[in-house]
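Dear colleague,

Thank you for sharing your sequence with our group. We've completed the structure prediction you requested, and as agreed, I am returning the results in plain text so they can be pasted directly into your records. Please verify that the sequence below matches your submission; if there's any discrepancy, let me know and we will rerun it promptly.
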Amino acid sequence: MKRMVQFFKDSYAELKKVVWPTREQVINSTQVVLVSLAIIALALGAMDAVFAQAVLLILG
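Please find the predicted structure tokens below.
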């Protein structure tokens, strides 16, 4: 039990050292992720459509 209490004390001490991002930084990072996700989704969708058409041309 003593080790578990020490673990939580140490964890709390480490969390106090963390430099948390500001709200603006979180919003900017989220926007970058969403834009990147949209671009990758569009690229994959386009490649899928091209490959699907290619397969239809080859088989059909």
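Summary note from our side: Residues 20-60 form one domain.

Kind regards,
the structure core
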